[in-house]
Write a structure and sequence with these properties.
transmembrane; 59 residues; membrane; DUF2892 domain-containing protein; transmembrane helix; mainly alpha
Length: 59
């Protein structure tokens, strides 16, 4: 676990990164033949961003 000065700010930055990953995976699902794989990864990234789960940041 990492100790940070402002855990809420760190969690918001991580969530923003995960939303960007979800968008990237959705774009890849549109243009690549592995639609199910990238769709599943996009769903996972979106769920992780929405839940705010991050075991590395100590609150």
């Amino acid at each position: 676990m990492f100790k940070v000065k402002d855990p809420e700010k760190a969690l918001k930055a991580i969530a923003l990164f995960r939303y960007a990953l979800a968008a990237l995976f959705l774009l890849l699902a549109l243009f690549r033949p592995e639609k199910l794989l990238f769709g599943g990864l996009a769903l996972l990234a979106l769920l992780m961003a929405r839940s705010g789960y991050c075991p590395l940041v100590r609150r």
